[in-house]
Design brief:
125 residues; alpha/beta; 5-stranded parallel β-sheet; two-stranded antiparallel sheet; 6 helices
Length: 125
C-alpha cells in the first residue's frame, strides 16, 4: 500500500490563538500534514521562490501587520500562482468576499465558523 502524500500548508496568520485553532482543525482532517506559520507578508516575499513547489494550500488572514485587504489578496495570489489560497477573516462582508473570490481566492471562511468538518467539506473534500 502506497503511503499517503504529505500535505504542506502555509498559514499566514499573526494571531497565535487563531493559528493554533486552525492547526488543530487541519490536523483533525488530514493525517499526513506539515503546517508552517508566518506572521507577516514580508516573510512570504522571502520564500516566494519556493511557494509553488513547496505548498499545497495557503491559508491567509485578511489582515496582517504589514499588509491587508485587497492589496494583500492580490499580492499573495500573484506569488501563490497555482497554489489554492483560502482567505480567513473575523469579519463578514459579502462585498469583500465576492471581490476576493473574483481576485482568485479559492474559498472565503469566517474564523468564528471554522471547524474540522467545515474544512473537510469545503477545502479537503
Amino acid at each position: 500500500m502506497k503511503p499517503e502524500k504529505l500535505i504542506n500548508i502555509l498559514v499566514m496568520e499573526d494571531n497565535y490563538g487563531d493559528f493554533y485553532l486552525l492547526k488543530e482543525y487541519i490536523e483533525d482532517c488530514l493525517e499526513h500534514v506539515k503546517i508552517v506559520n508566518i506572521e507577516r507578508f514580508k516573510e512570504l516575499i522571502e520564500i516566494a521562490h519556493v511557494i509553488e513547489s513547496s505548498y499545497d494550500y495557503i491559508f491567509l488572514d485578511m489582515s496582517l501587520p504589514d499588509k491587508s485587504g485587497e492589496e494583500l489578496v492580490k499580492e499573495v495570489i500573484k506569488i501563490a500562482k497555482s497554489v489554492p489560497v483560502i482567505m480567513l477573516t473575523g469579519f463578514s462582508s459579502d462585498t469583500f468576499s465576492k471581490k476576493a473570490l473574483d481576485l482568485g481566492i479559492k474559498e472565503y471562511l469566517l474564523k468564528d465558523e471554522l471547524s474540522s468538518s467545515l474544512l473537510q467539506n469545503k477545502i479537503f473534500f
